Amino acid sequence: MLNAVEKSFSGTKQFLDATRKAFSGVELPRHIVKVALQGFIPPPHDGDVDDPAKKTVVMVPGWGCGVGTMKTLGRALNGNVNVLYPDNLPGGLLAAFSQMSLDQEATNIADFVDRADRGGEEDIYFAGHSNGGVASLLAFVKMQERSSDTLRNRLKGVITMASPINGSPDYHYGHAPLISRLPATKHLRPNSSVHRELSTHYEAISLCIASSRDELLDLDMQWVKGRPTVNLDFSHWDYTFGPPEKIQQVAGCIQATMQG
How many domains does the chain have? Predict the structure, then answer.
């Protein structure tokens, strides 16, 4: 009983410390405001798509973010690769209150790619931010199991960005009942069934982009031993609403991986 109380107290303290750290700067409040406004911002023109000479990257947002939050990074990539945004994920304000499970999100992403593909020949990569990196890997696995041989052979890999690829910190669970019950996060506990399943498919990860200044995830939770990794001096939000030079840096990492 005493050990359970001590564990609960320790976990609560860790959670509060992480929350205090996240709110100590401007990144999280700014992120919340921009996510809240995402539904009112018209999507910009993203240039030409479906160029058969270019490789394709499917952009997957994290929990609480619509695909519009990936547009800045997508525009930095556009012109060098084809950029696709799943149209069957919650968008705008709905994304912030989404009750879609991680597994359903992965199914929707796989469905989108199956539907959007028109018998092309280009290589296909997934690039997911935060929870979107885990959803991307799940979608990759689903497509490897169900898609046609031709399409499976074109699936080349997954690029994760500040993603809980090794699970979220334990203090996110049990000590914060709301977070532990969110459909998109309740399966991210380290050693969960989802992560045990994904661990057998880690070879599909082409690159783990990790954030050494991340407010939400420890660095060792963002990368997989033996897989290519880049550690950036980023906050968790720099991939979506960061300054142009940081967005361009991430785009460069993605392009180098896809061209390598």
Answer: 1
Helical spans, DSSP H, in the chain: 2-23, 27-37, 71-77, 93-96, 102-116, 131-146, 149-154, 177-181, 193-198, 238-241, 244-259
Domain that holds residue 218: 55-259
Residue 258 phi, psi dihedral angles, 5° rounding: -70, -25
CATH number at residue 153: 3.40.50.1820
**223 in a domain, yes or no?**
yes
Beta-carbon count within 10 A of 189 CB? 19
Task: Return the exposure string of 31-66: e unless at least 16 CB atoms fall within 10 Å of the residue's CB, then b.
Answer: beebbeebeeeeeeeeeeeeeeebbbbbbbbbbbbb
Residue 77 in domain: yes
Higher pLDDT, 196 or 37: 196
Structure tokens at 249: 């840096």
Q: Does any domain span residue 251?
A: yes
Q: Is 27 within the bounds of a domain?
A: no
Distances from the Cα of 52 to the Cα of 122, 143, 189, angstroms: 6, 21, 40
pLDDT tens digits along 221-251? 899 999 999 999 998 889 988 899 999 999 9
For residue range 155-210, list pLDDT tens digits in order. 999 999 999 998 776 544 444 444 555 666 666 776 777 788 888 999 999 999 99
CA dihedral 232, 238, 240, 246 (to 10 degrees): -70
What's the mean pLDDT when you consider all of the chain? 79
DSSP code of residue 43: P
Task: For residues 47 and 49, give the distance between their C-alpha atoms in angstroms, rounded to a whole number.
Answer: 7
Return all residues near 1 (Cβ < 8 A) that are at least 6 apart: none
91: helix, strand or coil: coil
Of 59, 18, 9, 70, nearest in space to 217 by CA? 18
